Fold this protein.
Amino acid sequence: QITLKQSGPTLVKPTQTLTLTCTFSGVSLTTGGVGVGWIRQPPGKALEWLGVIYWDDDKWYSPSLKSRLTITKDTSKNQVILTMTNMDPVDTATYYCAHRPVTSSRRSLGFDPWGQGTQVTVSS
Amino acid sequence: QSALTQPASVAGSPGQSITISCTGTSSDIGGFNYVSWYRQDPGKAPKLIIYDVSHRPSGISHRFSGSKSGNTASLTISGLQPEDEGDYFCSSYTSSSTLDFGGGTKLTVL
């Protein structure tokens, strides 16, 4: 059974950097084809994809946020870390990490399962 | 504004079938067979119910099916049950190696 557990702050100040950690079990990011993605959801709004990191350290980012985002992995700890700089109140959202199962193509971005979500508020 | 267009709401009675559409362009839905569908209950994380247009993950009921025609993908739920109520989101891989989501559809079981 694959599980993802998220940790990180629930409140950050404007201009600060957000760092969220996704610790997973039941799967290894050394396994070919595996990926972990990040998705966020502002209150009452739609999902927004942030990026994904693959087992071979390939990374894809949302173009609109690419300059502010970094996704890294620590395979020894089974962790994926999301860093977002220069946080703004419009970045207030629930942030999710999610597992991308092994499939025939890395273009297949169906995420399952998801972490529990981290509700992040950006406010001074 | 989301890149993929979904109806804001759909409704159906128990036992009926409903279809939720997800419209994109030739740069996303129309160009690739990498559409996924998720169901989200209030306050919960989304759950994958369809991937790669029409594939069901293990444990997902056969009442859920996906299809695609041109730039529009569809999720059909047959034999509607009260527990199917929730928000449904589509997503698609794009030609820019990114992922777009739809705005979400609220399903009400009357």
Summary: Chain A has a mean pLDDT of 96.
